[in-house]
Amino acid sequence: MAMNEKSKKLGEEAKLEIDKNFLEKNRVKETMSDLVTQLTANRPADPLKFMADYFQSSYEQSNRLEKSYQVIMLSHHSRPAFKQNVATAFDILNQTKLTKQLTGINGMLFDELLTLLLKDTPSSAAAKFKHKLCRRQHEAVTYEVFYYAVSSIVLYRDYLELSNQLYELLDVGSNGQVDKTYSEIVISQLRSSFSLLSQQSSEGELQACVNLSPDGISAALSKASASAAGNKTTLNHDQFMETAASAFLTIVEKLDSTAT
């Protein structure tokens, strides 16, 4: 009997955890909080109709957000189609109905897109990344801001992928630890290369390719071999990726808010 009660309790706890995850995944708390704020601020004559309109608008926003994200991810940022895809994604999201009379992209919607683009990246760095690119909640987002943010994030995703490959290259003992001095040299080389790529010039792209070639990486590591010899400090995978992510953030410009 006691065992049955314990199993029942565990089952209820598991269900509560699943329900909690469902609510968090679908941003129910944020949605309801915003709805209450809107109701309090607007004090509509017909609250039920206001709520129905609000949820219809939220549904349309969600659809446009997902579609915009999918269009952005259609092609690699190095392909000619990328710029056109970003423009299309902006147009899709820019038709979002924010109020009865107003359509466009505000800071809140923009933040949701940044969250989608930054998923599966180190969480602490992602928060700092969003802080540099975010707009105020009700501030209009221009195409220039939109394009800069999107192109910075897709470049960052490539950077993280390459960082992971370089970590595996440095982990010669396959023990999950890499030399800190070598790591810092490689990350510095990687950061400077992506800084050149972000300038979108043919000369910069050529130099970045040279820096990231096997010969370029090897030359950088050779220069560091003397100082690394007496240094036994190591980094694990998470530490290496966090260090790499933080280094990339230094080349991302903070977008100043224009709202008053």
TrEMBL record:
Domain Tubulin polyglutamylase complex subunit 1-like C-terminal per the UniProt entry, residue ranges: 60-252
Any one Gene Ontology molecular-function term assigned to this protein's record: microtubule binding
SUPFAM superfamilies registered for this protein in UniProt: Dimerization-anchoring domain of cAMP-dependent PK regulatory subunit
Domain of life of the organism encoding this protein: Eukaryota
Pfam families linked: TPGS1_C
InterPro entries on file: TPGS1, TPGS1_C
PANTHER family: TUBULIN POLYGLUTAMYLASE COMPLEX SUBUNIT 1 (PTHR31932:SF2)
Protein name per UniProt: TPGS1
